Each structure stands twice: as C-alpha cells, then as structure tokens.
Amino acid sequence: MRLGLNLGYWSAGRATDVVAGHLALAQEADSLGYESVWVAEAYGSDSVTVLSWLAGQTERIRLGSAVMQIPGRSPAMTAMTAATLDTLSGGRFILGLGVSGPQVSEGWHGVRFDAPLARTREYVEVVRMALGRQVVEHPGRHYPLPLPGGPGKALRMTIRPVQEQLPIYLAAVGPKNLELTGEIADGWLAIFFSPEHSADLRESLGVGSARRAAPSAGFDIVPTVPVVVHDDVATAADAVRSYCALYIGGMGSRQKNFYFDLAVRMGYEAAAREVQDHFLGLEPRRAAAAVPLEFIDATALLGPPDRIRDRLARYADAGVTTLSVSPVAATLEGRRGVLRMMTDLVAAAGLAE
C-alpha cells in the first residue's frame, strides 16, 4: 500500500501561510518517498495552478488533481492542461476528475447538472482522444466536436504528454458513478471511505470493470483519510467534526447531497438527517456535534500511533492501493510529523510497497 498526501483546497486565512504550508508538506512527502500529492478545488483556489507551482519545487512525487471540476472546463481544455502539466513535471501528472455537485455546477460554473454519468463518459472519451493526439471528432450529445453545422474543424493537439497513457482517475460516491469509474477510469478517488462499509462500493467498481473492453492493469483505489494523533480518540475526532458536517450537511441541497446519501447507506440515516437539519438551519456547531463518533472513527485514522498502526491493515484488506493522508494538527510541524509517522507505521505494519 502506497502513501499519498492530500492537501485539499485553500480555505479561509492568510494565503501566504497556506502557500508556505502546502509547499512544506509536499516537499516533506517528496523526501519521505510518498507516491503522490493531491490538490483539490471547489470555488476558491484551483488545483491546476497549485500543482504547477508544486511541480517546479518537487522532484519525484506524482502530482494529482483531486479533482479538476468537469463543469469548469471543456474536455479539450482539460486535455491541454493535463498534457502541459505532465510535460512540466517530467511525466508525473495524474488527472483526477469529478462532476462536483449541482450547487457548484449550476451556482458557480453556470452548467446544468443533468445527466452527470453520460457527461462524464463523453468528457473522458474526448480527453483520452486529445491526449492520444488523435484528430478529435466526437459525435456525443453533450460534447459534440466539431460543432455540427458550423465552420469548426477537427483538430489534433499540438503537444504530447510525457506519459504514453496519462492516468485518469474519477471521484465517485454513488453506485452508478462507481460502476462508471470501474469501467472507464484508471483509479478511484474516494472520500469518507470506511473499510468495514466498502464491500458494496467495491462490488459496484467490479460491475463496471467487467464491462471494460480490455482488463485494467493496476487499478488504483485512493481514499482520502484524515489522520489525527491524540491519546483520546473522541478528542481526535473533534478535530474533523466540522469537515464531516460540511459535507454531510452542506455539500448539496436537502434533495441532492451525495455525501449525505453515502452516510445513509453506511447506516447513519438518523444522524445524517440531524446533521443536515442543523447545517441547513445555519447551526454549524450543532451540526458538527451531531456527527457520530462511530462515523468519524470508521472514515479516519484517530488516536495514539499504536492504534493507528493497528488499524492500517483494514485499508489494505479492503483493496486500498494508495492511502491519501490528510494530516490534521494545529501546527505545520505537527502536520509534518504526521507524515513522518505514517511512513514509519506503514512500514511497521508490513504494508509498505
């Protein structure tokens, strides 16, 4: 099992402090032999700029977008960006994509959140064609290229990425999206991944994988896992309560929230409804307090180092190939310490690749 670092996206605070912290963590992970570093985007900092900046200041670590938002870019623009980043980084880029949600897609990007599965399928088809330097002609309903009835010309991208087959990962939560991921992607970017609740998720991936035209070699399962070191598990859980409440309660509407649905499928329906009620009622502290300790402990690594070490094998047993660590600590040095600790614990558990 490999280790990755998830830097997330910039949040409120002094940007200069965030920049320095992100760079220090990426360089620490690079020096420790982490496989990959991942950068997200929502409606603030974008992932591409941050990854470009990290590419010039790291040496070996792979650079992944987790994710580039599908509604925010045309597939051709995404292919151009991916090829450029891959070239600048010497072949280290991993293209992670996701449809985001209806609130961000329609409220921020002005793109209707309709037919997300069909859109994703067509999007990936166009991106792969462009990255393969084919003449891009695509007759799809959502991304027809060239546009019919106009002067557009089918074009071939003028540069090529370093990697012959640049990997494309998808962020997926629901069963149908997981099937699509297993069918067309090279990896799965997971959130709130619980090894004990993962059998149905992996089954959905398998359904999609069975539909592939050719078998996938080395499909990568990459959950983002918060890591909080503290002698008391409940106290450690408090450090990620607000993060959990934001997604379960606020990353979507009452009618459509993929993370809420995931919590329900895991057996936390009553608690998820309470979290959502408080969050949508503008009571974020009460929402955070309503997140069950059991949910947090199932989807994060909490407690003293020995407990974290003993719980690592659960991920390998559940098919995880890259554990993407999100270090949670009050200081930068504390977060760097988490990265060092995880390297030692994975090795001590006999899980290092």
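Next protein, fold it too.
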Amino acid sequence: MKSFGALCLSLLLFNTAFAQPEKAISNKDTYSWMFGASWTLTDDDGESFNPFLFENLHSHLFPTQLSIDKYIYNGWSAEFIMTYSKYNPEKITNGSNGITGNIFSMDFNGKYSLYKLLKNGVIDPYAISGLGVSLRNNNDTTVRTFSPTFNFGVGINFWITKQIGLQLRSVAKIGLTDFLKSSDYMQHSVGVVLRFEKLEKADNSFSKSKYKVSKRRKKIKYGGKKKGKKDT
C-alpha cells in the first residue's frame, strides 16, 4: 500500500505542474478518454451468497488491472479492461485450499455514470455491464481453463482534481460455460483514474492571409486597332 500512496502523490504533483489551463476546456460533457490502473481483490471461493468474505480474497501487487474508457454521450461510455491476479494457496478457491496459479481476463463493458445528474461534483457513481473472457492457469480441477463471462457491477470515482480520481468498484462475472457454477467469481478493485477532456482547436485566423495573390500569368491586351501606313 506504500507504493499505492506514492503513486497517488506523484500523479497529483504531475497534474499540478502540467495541467492544461481551464480556459482551453471546451467539452461540455465530462471527459473524452479515461485511463486507470488498479489493485484487485479476487473472490473465487464458490460462496455465491457471500461475495465479501475478505479472508478469502486473492490479491497481487499493484497494479493488476488496466482500463481504457471512451466517453460516448450523456453519461454513457465504453470501456476495455485487462486484469491479472494470482491465487493464494492459503485462501479458499471453490471450496478448496492449496490452489496455485493465476487468472487473466479481458472485458468489454458498457458504463453509465450519474456524474452529470449530480451536477459534476466530487462523487461519480456508475454501473457497468458487458461481456468478457477469463483464462485460468491453476490446479483447480473443478473449473474450465477458458470461460466467457457476463459481467455486471457498480463503482464510484472520487475526483481529487479535474483530471485525477480514486476509483472503487465491484464486478460479478458469471461463467457462460457452466452457468452459476465454479467459473463464476467476483473482483473488487481500488485504483487511480486519469481523465482527459477535449481541447479547443487553435484559432489560426490571424496567421492566414486575407488577400490572395494569383500566381497565374495574365496576358496584357493593348487597346485600339493597328493603324495602317499612310501612302506617300
């Protein structure tokens, strides 16, 4: 957790030193792109009705989750997430202990945020739903190695500045190969998110010439008719 605190402090100092002037911000929605890095806690103990048994949560060094979020319109956005976690043999996994190995997942989710409805304050709650795939590399014989999942969950961002926030979320992943069985699991995460807003395009009207000079050569016409020679 010391490394997590150091990362937050360094991001805050970076934002203070290099933040864009507020006058340049023109996006009336909340952001254009959001990037995140989080520390995850994986619940794979098989207890469907007890998703918050902290003594059974598997964890790994920060960061174990990377996310990219693209804002679409009116609170809606799309996100792509990659997550890596290791199993702790001392924790319960699907009713057994001694399970070692790791789990990797990729998820594509739709996301709806209440940020605009709350007048763009510090608190930014949201809900997500989507599809993903999970790849387990462990010695758990009760679960399939590859499993597509249906995801749904909730989360909340706490915006420290206009660009930097602290994110908390919990997501349930329902295995589609063995519905509501050993492929199901939950992931809780805490991390840092950075959002970037659209900037106004520079006005180059002063650098453009108001007068156009034609480079085409024009033929010079002489007026009047040629006079013939007088007879001598």
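About the second fold: The mean pLDDT is 78.
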